[in-house]
Amino acid sequence: MTTSLKKLLLGEQGLLVIFAAAFVVVSLTVPNFLTERNMLGLLQSVVTIGVVACTMMFCLASRDFDLSVGSTVAFSGMVAVMASNATGSIVLGLLAALACGAIVGLANGIVIARFRINALITTLATMQIVRGFALIASDGRAVGINDPAFYQLSLSKFLTVPTPIWVMGLFFVVFGFLLNRTVFGKNTLAIGGNPEASRLAGVDVVRMRIWIFALQGLVCAVAGVLLASRITSGQPNAATGLELSVISACVLGGVSLAGGRATMTGVVVGVLIMGIAENVMNLLNIQAFYQYVVRGLILLIAVLLDNMRSVAGRPRA
Amino acid sequence: MQDFLEFRSISKGYPGVQALSEVSFSVRKGTVHGLMGENGAGKSTLIRVLSGDQAADTGEIRIDGVTQHYRSVRDAFNAGVIVIHQELQLVPELTVAENLWLGRFPGKAGVIDRRQLIRVVSDRLAEIGIDIDPQAKVASLSIGERQMVEIAKAVMTDARVIALDEPTSSLSSRESEILFALIDRLRSSGTVILYVSHRLDEIFRLCDSLTVLRDGRLAAHHPHISKAGREQIIAEMVGREISNIWGWRARPLGAARLSVEGVSGATLPQPISFAVRAGEILGFFGLIGAGRSEMARLVYGADRRRQGKVLVDGVAVPADNPRLSVRAGVVLCPEDRKFDGIVQGRSIEENMAISSRRHFSPFGVVDKRKEADLAERFIAKLRVRTPSRHQDIVNLSGGNQQKVILGRWLSEEGVKVLLIDEPTRGIDVGAKSEIYEILYELAAQGMAIVVISSELPEVMGIADRILVMCEGRIAVEVDRSEFDEHRILAAALPDASATTPTLPEQVS
Predict the structure, then answer these.
(1) Which residue in B47, B326, B312 sits closest to B195, CA to CA?
(2) Which of A35, A140, B328, B359 has the greatest number of CB atoms lying within 10 Å of its CB?
(3) Class (C level, CATH) for B3-238
């Protein structure tokens, strides 16, 4: 009895089982949780984390690390607002934001992969530089959106579900496909598993890492645009601490910080667990201060579980 | 002499495998006991049980007549049992003395008594005849010296039983000799040594008695090794007679396939030139550090070539890009499979398809069915022993990992030159001849093959021609018709005047 339970929890689908169980328990015990309105609100609240987690997953799976995502989200959101205000064209604003995000990512990638600087240090630096850009550009103030059509990005709905949620869903599908079914995804996992062996096996490790960072920047820009649209302005201090939430969600989802191991479903579940925890605490009127403690505990428990899982699955001669 | 260490019907099963069944044997005090067997025969499991790392399902271990009930490595340690693994357990940034004291530093109130620390260690090292500075950082020591420190650590704790798991696998012959001398001294002081090795020469050189395991069972026990024969032991290990494990046969050779012209790089300053014909197996022999692996890495472009050209069928191969080398038809199976070959944590299938999947991935989207077909095909063709293609590659034995890496390259298109560095290191006898057969078949198909090996019998057994390297240069070239053990070994020794194969010096 206990061994089969252990097997279930520590098995391949353990996280999914725990998530399903938690979801059922919460639905039954927390009033107003399982309502359409709350569900949509919950999903909307995790859009930024969810979108950025898609590429953070690639970053971690290839044994890299990116702390600059929060700043990039804020900066590209700011660029989108300011550029569309200045040109009067939302499309131009969006393109400018995407370009800026991609350039930040590309710069990260080139410094890390080409010049072989530690990813943690590099992105710690760009995190501050890019945040600085956002503050300089806006003179430290929020910049309001002129054209109301910009709001529509996050207000519009398709089949009663807000667009940002569709975008997040689409990203989950696309990046899941990219990870599992493409050479890009397989090479990502391979270089995370053993970079030198991958290089000798003919994988262009440097180029792969640059691409992963560039993609990360681009995706941050998408998240930044959606966020700016939702908060109806470019905020230089938006998304502070996002990098930690995103990495938490990935680790919750079983992505290995040592590289070589990641699944999209895991990350989706990780993102949802983060969202549900916060949502439930809000519904139960738990003070925000306690929420930090709970979030930290969830992360700790998740890594402990993960550790038990990898010990249980350790190869034996 | 009485039996000091006894294994009594030890059995241990893992899900799907019975790793050990009813293994019983005993070892006398003050002897060195060999433990042999193919990979997967149960040696490692037995060592794990002895070390307290894993508990046996049934059976017991007795030391000096006392049944042991240990539940952890700590308990085994307290009972005087120490296992020295292939991966050494030393802290590189600490000194030798600090490593030896780690966990029980002498001193008061947390302040280490440095004088005592060093004095006791120098005494102990002198006592067992190890010539290493106690104040040297472990990081500055050679692998051989680290091995000595590891043994000294066991001696420091008054270990009664020391198990060594393939201690010479990364040592030069000279370092091995020093290790053997140390083991001899420990034997005369009454310690029981359990010595795991693949190398028969070492077993005969060192051991008083021998146990052979096969498929988790006791295949043979020789209380006196002098009465056992080489062929007999091999037969016991594999369970069948292997009369000629090389199986070399003549092949027609074609035109020059690989031409290496004056190649040099940071790791190999003197330019090197040679050529290999289609269908030819060219052997590279030399001591550790003679520059063979460095040569292969330069040819492949794993390290940047500073000068010289590599031509395959007359077409130049770029100087520093393994990816483009593969496109040009040159592939490398690296020496260190663990660090340079396999991608740990990923499946056999992914490890095989890592390079060749680009051929069936239109727009970068992998055709999963084709990838599965490919994996199944090469698992069958190369006879990789595994329950499934989804198996994590780290769970395979060395021989099977090597086959997967071969499969990685065989599944590529248009491979013309195969560089294979230490093709059978850490691989058991049965799998060795399978790998040789694969090489012959590839050569027969017209591939040019460069085999690098530290095992002279292996190079002489399978190569059509041998180039002997010494101190970064090609010292001599020998055709198969002129193969002569003494001549080849003599050429490999740094002092060219040496005609008798004495202790080879390591060149660093």
Answers:
(1) B47
(2) B328
(3) alpha beta
Count of alpha carbons within 13 angstroms of residue B257, beta-carbon side? 25
pTM of the model: 0.73
Instruction: Report yes or no: B419 and B299 within 8 Å, Cβ to Cβ.
Output: yes
Closest CA to A137 of A237, A238, A236: A236
Q: Which residues contact A100 (CB under 8 A, 6 or more apart)?
A: A75, A76, A79, A221
In sequence order, the β-bridge partners of residue B63 are B5, B66
HSE of A281 in the Cβ direction (CA atoms, 13 Å)? 17
* Nearest CA distance, B355 vs chain A (angstrom): 6
Chain B residues with CB under 8 Å of a chain A CB are 14, 19, 40, 44-45, 48, 300, 302, 322-323, 325-327, 332, 334, 339-346, 350, 353-355, 357-358, 361, 364-366, 368, 392, 394-395, 408
- Diameter of chain B measured on Cα atoms: 76
Euclidean distance between CA atoms B50 and B283, whole angstroms: 40
* Homologous superfamily of the B254-329+414-492 domain (CATH): P-loop containing nucleotide triphosphate hydrolases (3.40.50.300)
Read off the tokens for B403: 């086959």
Listed by start position, the domains of chain B span 3-238, 254-329+414-492, 344-413
Question: How far, in Å, are A18, A254, A304, A308 from residue A301 at the CA level?
Answer: 12, 12, 5, 11
CB contact under 8 A, A189 and B346: yes
Query: Same topology for domains B3-238 and B254-329+414-492, yes or no?
Result: yes
Count Cβ neighbours within 10 Å for each residue of A292-312 and write b for 16 or more, e otherwise: eeebeebbeebeebbeebeee
Bridge partners (DSSP) of residue B194 are B33, B163
Instruction: For B84-117, write each residue's pLDDT tens digit.
Output: 887 777 888 788 888 888 777 777 777 777 788 8
Quick: pLDDT tens for B277-307: 999 999 999 877 788 999 999 999 999 999 9
Interface test with B, best of A178, A194, A211 (most B CBs within 10 A): A194
Task: ipTM value, please give it.
Answer: 0.77
| Residue among B408, B473, B414 nearest B438 (CA) | B408
